Fold these 2 entries.
Entry 1:
Amino acid sequence: MIEPLPVAGRPPMQHLQGRVVENRSLGGDLWLLRLQVPDLPPAQAGQFVHLECGADLTLPRPFSILDSHPESQDIDLLYRVVGEGTRRMTGWQPGWVTPLLGPVGRPFTPPPAGMEAVLVAGGVGVAPLDFLARTLVAQGVSVTLFLGMESEAPWPLRQASATETLEAGLALAHLQSRGIASRLASLTARPGWFTGYVTELAAAYLQRLPPDRRARCRLYTCGPLPMMAAVARLAERFGLQGEAALEARMACGFGGCAGCVVLIRAGEKGYYRRVCVDGPVFPLGDVDWQQQGH
Ligand SMILES: Cc1cc2nc3c(=O)[nH]c(=O)nc-3n(C[C@H](O)[C@H](O)[C@H](O)COP(=O)(O)OP(=O)(O)OC[C@H]3O[C@@H](n4cnc5c(N)ncnc54)[C@H](O)[C@@H]3O)c2cc1C
Ligand code: FES
């Protein structure tokens, strides 16, 4: 049964201006953009900004917040060039000013005390999970991040030795220096990377954990839909809870147009929810992955 959209309370967000501080290629089609956004309310992992990429482009484009630096009022975005809007962004020079809306959406929720976080990212879906990993570890939560990428990794890698539960392999150096374990997966064989789907890597990790420790894991995911659907199946298989940050084509970005709705289950019922303001983060078990095509 599908019920009409509820009018949910809107999280605080504002129409603001972002001034480009830095915009650099990370190799391939990946770019890192730092914007200074005066008066941006504090941002949390999972939230995004809705960014105008050109005055003549009808719709703004949504990008997850990779990091927030309240002291300098800067935010970082990791973006992949896929079309006209992102292609134009690559030409932005320091000083360029662009209107934006943010921070938009409901962020990830930290796991209850005593639980571990297992993060499964695909491609640029790593942006909100990298932010989440650093946030959680600062709160004393143990975090392991798995990243599947078919292009080069966006950050420097460092060799990590095998532990009781993780095979030896390359890890993201900036996370390793903060005590966050990570491993990389690709469908193409590369030295130090797991060859296969990132969800196979995460499954092998969970399988190897002692059952009482595995039961204390909470899953978080962001990336391509088939990958997140596979993470939802992993959660079912191991009896775990988790959250997924969904993507959808967006128009208004503030809950007004219903252009971004997805089907969310609540028991026997289904409800349409707006990815922009009711999400983008939803409980893994509530997303109707079949309706999403997976
Ligand atoms: C909540 C949210 C967070 C996002 N975070 C990031 C991020 O951190 N980094 C990043 O690189 N991208 C992110 N995206 C996707 C990003 O918004 C799109 O890649 C961007 O809007 C494409 O704009 P464009 O004009 O370059 O491409 P377009 O010319 O508009 O489209 C080119 C291609 O990109 C696909 N596309 C466009 N918009 C979306 C979308 N919203 N979701 C999925 N596919 C899309 C189209 O189907 C098409 O194949 C996010 C999307 C959402 C909804
Ligand atoms: S984009 Fe308009 S309601 Fe989500």
Note: The helical segments are 84-89, 126-138, 173-176, 198-208, 211-214, 225-238.
Entry 2:
Amino acid sequence: MDQIKVKVERRNVGYSVFIGGSILSGLSDYLRKNHANKKIVVITDETVSKLYKENFFNKLDAFNPYVIILPFGEKIKTRETKNKIEDTLMEKKYGRDSLIIAIGGGVIGDLAGFVAATFNRGIPIMHIPTTLLAMIDSSIGGKTGVNTRYGKNLIGSVLQPSAVFADLNFLRTLPDEEFLSGLAEVIKIAITSDKELFSIIENDYEKILAKDEGVLLKIIKRSIELKKEVVEKDETESGLRQTLNFGHTIGHALEAHFNYKIKHGFCVSIGIAAELKISALCGILQADEQRIVSLLDKLKLPTKINKDINADKLIGYMVSDKKTLNEKPHFVLIKDIGTIKSEGKNYSFEVDGGIINKAIEMCKND
Ligand SMILES: NC(=O)c1ccc[n+]([C@@H]2O[C@H](COP(=O)([O-])OP(=O)(O)OC[C@H]3O[C@@H](n4cnc5c(N)ncnc54)[C@H](O)[C@@H]3O)[C@@H](O)[C@H]2O)c1
Ligand SMILES: [Zn+2]
């Protein structure tokens, strides 16, 4: 079992991320050692609960947890679900001595994390991520939140977990679409900050698609280390954390355009291709564009924008995105694989509308 320690200096808090295959056997020991007197609340979704009833949830029986099983999917990440969970917990007399364990993908992690952040002014949360995206992205860094009809993740808080247990065995049941969607985020972080990780994915892409545990452990561990480095330095996205948004300015616009019916990672994959084109048109990216796009293609991740999509309409979505500064879309610009443009603590840059438009047109399918 590997262990990565995340420290958030500004708040003087730290936590461990345990990674490996079958590491959940260590969970009981961890709970006994660290949360002996806590009343445990498990929050999960119906898919994960059905799949892991026998093999995992029963390991927690000894702790007599109160288990909340929610429907699956983004639609439950709302204030209404949060209210319901809070009411149930208060009715059942759960208080400050409770520990929430979120078992699921990013939806469950974000929602349960936000409940923990405000329940009795804050109770601890542990994450047991069950999707690739949740293992390498959403369970690390402490961002929690819910969606509203005005947009995604608009209401939320930052709460660092007390521990994360990333057990690779969960990936065995993950549908291919979900797996690939998470892989797009791994590639994103490799492009912005680690050439070596990129090469590993490039050389071992067939093993990755076959979910070879050795390679998966290597790339998941490295992705977590990279995200850790970013969030340790910048908990609230004032600087370095902006780099995690590479591929997301256009990715989010595509998600909004498709009314959130297309997986986030697929929109990010197209966003990566289009934002590489922007980096190239700005004269910052010299080589490597083709190398990256061809890796995305090999992994069967989409890289083309549908020709029917109007570029100006897409730019309109970028302008209304909550991360947009002064109504001007900003972009993380790539120099080469592993290196981005930076100026002091600034890592994302305003780009001329003509260039954005041209990049979108150049990335359209025939
Ligand atoms: N907090 C952050 O920093 C952060 C970062 C990135 C994304 N997010 C959020 O994460 C969410 C997306 O997370 P996601 O992609 O994990 O989606 P998700 O939680 O909806 O999970 C995807 C689907 O996979 C199913 N599933 C989960 N684990 C499974 C398993 N082991 N086997 C089979 N099926 C399984 C779920 O039931 C669900 O239907 C979004 O709401 C996004 O905003 C948060
Ligand atoms: Zn993302």
Note: The mean pLDDT is 94.
